[in-house]
Input
Amino acid sequence: MEKELLLRMEKKLKKISDDEIFCVYIDFPFCRSKCDYCIYKSISYKDGLNKREEYVEAVKEQLKIFKILFEIKIPDSIYFGGGTPSLWSTDELDYIVDSINNYNLIKMKKSEAHPYDLNDERIKYYAEKLNLDVISLGVQSFDKNACIGQNRIWVDKDSIKHIVSEFHKYDVKVNIDLVALFNGDEEEDWKIFEEDMNIVCNEIKPDIITSIPNYKTKLVYLEQLPRFRSILKEYVGDIYFPAGSKMLSLNYEDIKKYGENDHWIATKDYWIFQDSNVRYSSSHPSPKCPPKQITLSFGGAGNHVVYSYISSDNYVVYSAYNFEKHKFDYFDNHIINNS
Ligand SMILES: C[S@@+](CC[C@H](N)C(=O)[O-])C[C@H]1O[C@@H](n2cnc3c(N)ncnc32)[C@H](O)[C@@H]1O
Ligand code: SF4
Output
């Protein structure tokens, strides 16, 4: 399967057309500890660090096999996702960067990070060596008790403010992820989300804010979304703007049409930057293949699988490292519906 994927990618990239993009996704499937609310199937360091070293070596081997593709085509985007990709060491990231021909010519370079992992030295590394365009910080909530309630490592808002201003010094754009109703369904949890929005928009001031209704609470029900959206709306119109008018509509038909999941508000500059840049395959690539996209994914482990795809061929491969067999499992699957 590895060989098949390589051959198909090679063939495709040799005749890629101008309107198709080539994305690279690199997965770090581990987290320091598991947060209760999280929907990802990442692996906790608490279950043993021995797997980490085995995984890193396996990804390096994958890079050796697939790096020939970067001689054919410089990727349009690269995305470091997870799990928690800020747990890669800088030596390991050096190895990845040095394996990719003309890494610095990749137009869109983005990583996720847990704010707990970011000191000034790491920020400098991300800006100068990884040359990131965008960093996405998993904040979820500024409320200490809400984070403790979800077993989430909490970082205080002054530290997060410092991280954002440091990235801005290097001209790296910052996204902050917030989860609405992070620690429950009660009235108190709504108040915490309101306060989180207040802090992020008025004190932290990132370029983009991704607010996500907690999939594990009643916010998944349509009736709750107008209240959630009304809170977002209070912060729109001055510095921050939504992706489109439907995104913050309170009308049920519009909500259904737009979708109920992530809501993004961003500065005008960010929207201009995004519109003039390329898409990327994000955390972790979905089994549904976006049109006109070739995505090569590295890593994944256990149940935290990743997807590679060649949309024009309706070809999808999902893969993950298997710690029992000490090798990557690859499965291919021809998709029926492109999204
Ligand atoms: C891979 S994680 C982010 C990186 C890093 N591990 C961290 O936690 O900071 C991607 C995002 O998925 C979102 N997420 C996970 N579980 C969720 C849930 N139950 N409801 C809504 N969003 C969720 C979180 O906002 C999280 O930042
Ligand atoms: S939210 Fe982030 S750190 Fe927490 S378990 Fe999920 S991926 Fe790991």
In short: The chain has eleven helices and 14 strands. The chain has two domains: 1-128+281-339, 134-276. The pocket of iron/sulfur cluster (ligand 2) is lined by residues 31, 34-35, 38, 40, 42, 82-84, 114, 138 (CB under 6 Å). The longest strand covers residues 21-28.
